[in-house]
Design goal:
Shape: globular
Number of strands: 12
Radius of gyration: 21 Å
Oligomer: single chain
Bound molecules: adenosine-5'-triphosphate, magnesium ion
Order of helices and strands: EEEHEEHEHHHHEHEHEEHHHEEH
Strand content: 15-25%
Helix content: 25-40%
Structural class: alpha/beta
Distance between the termini: 23 Å
């Protein structure tokens, strides 16, 4: 199982801020998280919760008006004994040692990462040249191999085509192929599938899983849809207003969710069997220029207690793998039941899992 020796990236109390029209926006407000070598982590949360900003710190792609205010991002991938602290990286030359070859990111819009004027094969060969020192025939051969790896049929013929000749799903595969050509240790996929339909989303997720298995990649998959990552992610981190409010194994999150925000997210996921869309989360996330004093979710939380408006909850340990930051887990808090829609769904999931065995 997971143990400390296998940590590839360790984030410690990270705070990230942006300067915005003379004010300061608090985008990441104290995140600590270990990423284990070879795992697939999903980061889930509503729009604006900080998923992209958080992970952009791992490759030095933070927008110019943003900065790491405090905290560490220890990367163990180059030297397991002597990690480098990416939170201290400033110069472009420093990042060039990391970006692509250690940590690669597939962006939200695949079109922006492809050159419309060059063939797909050329673009992968370029990455191979730069990152693996392959040239000529060797590069051409390897490019075709990678295209096959990412599930593109007739790879040899397709390599000679241009991005516009590919469908959305196939383009996404090409972007992943280019990332793979850099031979990274960590692959971050920032919601690569929002524009695609659900079947294609599932296929891309499956592809990422296969690549993870084949190459021992560590993957981070970012999405606002918890339903998408069911059965796909080893672990799930739920983000809200610049913090991780709950994390655990996929099982922890789906079978024993503990944070009211996770309950709300789960309630808004269409049921995999019945396809019914359940309740959407009422209210809106807080303004991060003036983050609330207490738990940022308190305003929208029907279970909120007085203390939720006064003080931010610490991370409570539920098990070795499962943690959540909600006052409901304080020993003195009243016992509350999670919403019935979720308990019923969990019962259905358990029954189904039992029946499949
Ligand atoms: N360059 C920037 N300047 C100022 N604020 C920014 C900047 N980039 C992001 N933010 C703010 O940081 C917060 C987190 O944004 P982020 O893009 O990480 O959200 P997200 O979870 O990725 O959302 P989405 O699901 O829509 O992609 C938001 O409040 C956003 O407005
Ligand atoms: Mg984003």
């Amino acid at each position: 199982m997971l143990n400390n020796g296998d940590v590839i990236l360790s984030v410690k109390d990270l705070h990230v801020k942006f300067s915005l029209r003379g004010k300061v926006l608090n985008a990441i407000r104290g995140i600590s998280l270990d990423l284990y070598k070879g795992e697939s982590l999903a980061i889930v949360g509503e729009s604006g919760s900080g998923k992209s900003v958080f992970t952009k710190n791992f490759i030095g792609l933070l927008d110019k008006n943003g900065w790491v205010d405090s905290g560490q991002i220890l990367y163990y991938g180059m030297d397991a004994q002597n990690p480098v602290d990416l939170a201290k990286y400033k110069k472009e030359e420093e990042w060039q040692k990391i970006r692509g070859k250690e940590v690669a990111m597939v962006m939200q819009d695949p079109m922006t990462s492809l050159n419309p004027l060059k063939t797909i094969g050329w673009q992968i060969e370029e990455a191979l040249k730069l990152h693996q020192g392959l040239h000529g025939e060797a590069a051409v051969k390897k490019a075709i191999e990678i295209l096959q790896d990412v599930g593109i049929p007739e790879a040899e013929r397709r390599a000679k085509q241009y991005p516009h000749e590919f469908s959305g799903g196939m383009r996404q595969r090409v972007v992943i192929a280019i990332a793979m050509a850099c031979n990274p240790q960590i692959l971050i996929c920032d919601e690569p599938t929002t524009a695609l339909d659900v079947t294609i989303q599932a296929q891309i997720l499956q592809l990422i899983r296969n690549l993870k298995d084949k190459y021992g990649l560590t993957t981070i998959y970012i999405t606002h849809d918890l339903g998408v990552v069911a059965n796909m992610a080893d672990r799930i981190a739920v983000m809200y207003a610049g913090k991780i409010v709950e994390y655990g194994t996929s099982e922890d999150i789906f079978y024993s969710p503990a944070h009211p925000y996770t309950w709300a997210l789960l309630s808004s996921v269409p049921d995999l069997d019945t396809k019914e869309k359940l309740v959407s989360i009422p209210g809106t996330p807080p303004n991060m220029i003036y983050p609330p004093k207490g738990d940022a979710f308190a305003e929208r939380n029907v279970y909120a207690m007085e203390i939720d408006f006064e003080e931010q909850p610490p991370m409570f340990r539920i098990s070795d793998t499962h943690y959540a930051a909600t006052w409901l887990l304080h020993p003195d808090a009243p016992k509350v039941e999670m919403p019935a829609v979720i308990t019923e769904r969990i019962a259905r999931m358990k029954k189904k899992a039992g029946g499949d065995e």
